[in-house]
C-alpha cells in the first residue's frame, strides 16, 4: 500500500518521524529541516480526516529519562508548521488515554521513544561479550516486541517516514510493522523520496560521478569508501580523516586528529583507488591552528608538515582549488561530511568551497545528493540548499543504502 492510495479518513495513524533536531542550551530548535521534511506525510493524514500520532527519538538518552532530550521542547515548533495545536503524551509507553481521546484532524506527539531501552532493544548495564549479556539481550528482544506492540495498539495504521533511523531495527522503525497487515503499513512521502534519490545515485549513474566524503574519522566511512571505489570517477576525501592519510604516508601532523590504528587502511584505500583508476583527491595544504577554538591563531601549512602543537582545522587554499576542480563537470555528486571544523565560523572555508562547487555543477546539470547532518547544516549555513538536487535527512541511513545494504525500516514495510 502506498501513502498516496491510502485514505486516512476516520483512522488513527501512528507515524514514525525523525524529529531529532538540534537544540541550543535554552532548548530552542536551531534547524527545523527535519520537522519540515515530514510535513507532506503529516498533512495528508490530517487532510484525509485522520487522527495523527507522531513518535520520534531525540539524542541518545540510552533508556533513561533526560529532561534536556524531551520532545516537549519542540511541541510549539511542530504545532506552528503543522497548523494545529499538537497535544503531548508525557510517556510514550503509556499513552492509551491520549491516543483514545484523539479525534479526526487532531495531532498528538509522544515523548522521546529512547527513554525506553526497549526502543533500541539493547540491554542496559550489562557488559557486552559476557554470557549475562547474551541472556539479557534475548530477554530484551522479547520486551522490545511488547513495546512495539504497545505503540501499535494506539493506531489503525502505521507510516514509516523517518529515513534518518531506517538503518536501525528499532521497535518504532521496524518491529512495530509486524503488528499491521500489508494494507495498513506504508512508507511516508519523505521515505519514498529518499529511496528514489538513493536509487538515482546507485542505479542511474551519469558520469563523471564524484563522491565527497568528509568528517573526522576514516573508521566510520570505510565500508562506504570501499564501496564507492568501484563506482566513482573522482573521490574527494576531506575533513579530519585527511590527517590519518597524511600520517600513513609518512607526514608530520602535529596534534591533528588521527586514527593511528587505521593507517594501513588509509594506504589500502590509496592503492585501491589507483587499481580502479579513481582520481583520489586528498588535500595538500591545511589551515592549521594552535588551539581547537574559533579564535585560535591560524596559518596555512602543508598537510604533511604540521608543526608540533598545531592541528589541522580546515582545507587550505590549494586544496580548495583541487576540490572544486574535481567537482567541476561532474554529472552525479554525493556529498557526506564537511571539510573542516565548520561549526567554528573561522574554519568554514573548505566546506564552503565544496558547497559552492556542488551548487555550480548542479546548475550545469549534475544530480547532487547531500546527506548527513553536518553537510546539510553546511549547505543551509551558506544559503545554498535550493541550489542542490536533493538533501537527505539521513546520514548513516543514506550511507548504508548507498553501500547497498537493505534498510530494516524499508524492509519491514515491503516485507523483504
Automatic annotation (TrEMBL):
What GO molecular function terms would the record report?
kinase activity
| InterPro entries reported for this sequence | Phosphoglycerate_kinase, Phosphoglycerate_kinase_N, Phosphoglycerate_kinase_sf
Where substrate binds, per the record, is at 18-20, 34, 57-60, 114, 168
Q: Which reaction does it catalyse?
A: (2R)-3-phosphoglycerate + ATP = (2R)-3-phospho-glyceroyl phosphate + ADP
Give the family from UniProt: Belongs to the phosphoglycerate kinase family.
Q: What class of enzyme is it?
A: transferase
What are the entry keywords? ATP-binding, Cytoplasm, Glycolysis, Kinase, Nucleotide-binding, Transferase
Gene3D superfamilies from the xrefs? Phosphoglycerate kinase, N-terminal domain (3.40.50.1260)
EC assignment: the record states 2.7.2.3
Record's protein name: Phosphoglycerate kinase
Question: At which positions is ATP bound?
Answer: 221, 312, 343, 372-375
Q: Which residues are in coiled coils?
A: none
Q: In which pathway does it act?
A: Carbohydrate degradation; glycolysis; pyruvate from D-glyceraldehyde 3-phosphate: step 2/5
Complexes and interactors: Monomer.
Q: Where in the cell is it found?
A: Cytoplasm
Q: Name one Pfam family in it.
A: PGK
Main subcellular localisation: cytoplasm
Q: In which organism is this protein found?
A: Prevotella herbatica
